[in-house]
Amino acid sequence: MNNSTATPYFFDGTNRIALDKEESKRLLERLDIKSSNSAINAQTLVAARPAPKNPWRPELSFIDQSLRKMCEALGLFKKKERAIVENAADLICSLDRNLRFTDANAASTKLLGYYPEMLMLKSAVDLVIDEEKDQVRNHLQSAFSTAGRSHFESTLRKSNGELISVSWSVSAVPKENAIYAVVQDITHRKQIEQVKRDFLAMVSHDLRAPLGNIQLVLSLIEADGGEALSQPCKRSLSIAKDNALRLMALVNNLLDIERIDAGALAMVPEQASVKKAINRAIDALAAMYNQRGIYIVEDVDETQSAYFDEERIVQVLINLLSNSLKFSPPQTAIRVKVETGFDSITVKVIDQGRGIPADKLNSIFERFSQVEAGDSRQGQGAGLGLTICKAIIESHGGKIGAASNAADGSTFWFTLPRSTGL
Q1: Residue 44 contacts by C-beta under 8 Å, 6 or more apart in sequence?
Q2: pTM for the complete prediction?
Q3: How far, in Å, CA of 383 to CA of 34, rounded?
Q4: Which of 162-171, 181-190, 279-288 is least confident?
Q5: Using one digit for the tens of pLDDT, what is the confidence trace for 338-348?
Q6: Domain limits of the chain?
């Protein structure tokens, strides 16, 4: 039997179908396959058959397109991220466990005088001045051990030997053996802080002491001169005393603001009588009230007490009462009221003055804030008193605020805890 040729057949993907010579010819013509002889090889037809349809092809195509889009989006995101990092003014870098730089943005050139490639040859500790090397090393290594974030300051030496003050914001990822850090130049801020410290030292020593002496001399002149002084002389003496008193108050306020900023505003709270503190404040301002013909109405119970630093709360009350005095018309009353709550007491100072616009009720507690632009020029203060009051009350765990109606005057209030631990 001759097996040189095989019976032509067509495979449709499922069944194998035998074909005669005419059927093979028609199939080849349909498939556009030309044969030089009538003998059709079986393998030729098998190779020419249409590929069976894949039922998963649409889904695979969709997944492929989705993955391509995701890759493109990820690539675009990485480009944007790198552009942001490279254009940042602060040094953004990464360190390994040996605290050596593994990556850095272009800000290293301006900040430290090192190109990123040069920085990669150094350790972060290499840039720190000798006196702070151990401290910085401990901060960075502790970030690894705690796997947390850390913020600290140090002094770095630039490539040209210049020293700069910097702030570090560090985040460690132990699994990646990496520390990611943002290093910000704070040299200018440190210089401003030093200027402020120098100014406050000057205010404290070069102004406060002479002002105290001036006040003492003016009081002695007034006491010794008595009736012998002429009316113009008495008036000038009174103006000088008021100005000296106002300057001393400004100096004390500036010093208090500095203590607040430094977190060194001393507080010695204890259980104390609220009425006693209010009476002390009223007595301190008695001369001013009598001169203006303004009187005080107290709505305070002898038994009402709270947990507070008496000296500081007297300071707050004097400030609030003096503000009411400045803006109240003559022959009016200022009311001091105390309300007792479950765990706190509320002290209110209510006047019949000009009132405060609604849009100023929150801003009046900000530094150097005035209800009207001309208040400071008219001797109404520098705008620091209420800022200090707010800091004192909040240090007690209380709140302070104001309410006002142009027709009915203003009400300033603050709260204090009734006892320790509340």
Answers
A1: 33, 35
A2: 0.56
A3: 102
A4: 279-288
A5: 999 889 999 99
A6: 9-48, 88-185, 190-261, 270-417
| CA distances for 36 relative to 25, 28, 33, angstroms | 11, 12, 10
* Consecutive H or E run containing 101: strand 101-104
* Residue type at position 196: K
Pairing of the two strands 163-173 and 16-18:
unpaired
Is the alpha carbon torsion for 111, 112, 114, 118 positive or negative?
negative
Q: Residue 348: helix, strand or coil by DSSP?
A: strand
Nearest to 345 by CA among 380, 315, 307, 401: 307
Is domain 270-417 classified as CATH 3.60.10.10? no
Torsion angle, alpha carbons of 241, 245, 251, 257, to 10: -170
| CATH class of segment(s) 88-185 | alpha beta
How many whole angstroms separate alpha carbon 180 and alpha carbon 149? Answer: 10
Cα of 184 vs its chain's centroid, Å: 16
In angstroms, the CA 369 to CA 351 distance is 20
CA angle 294, 298, 302 (to 5 degrees): 150
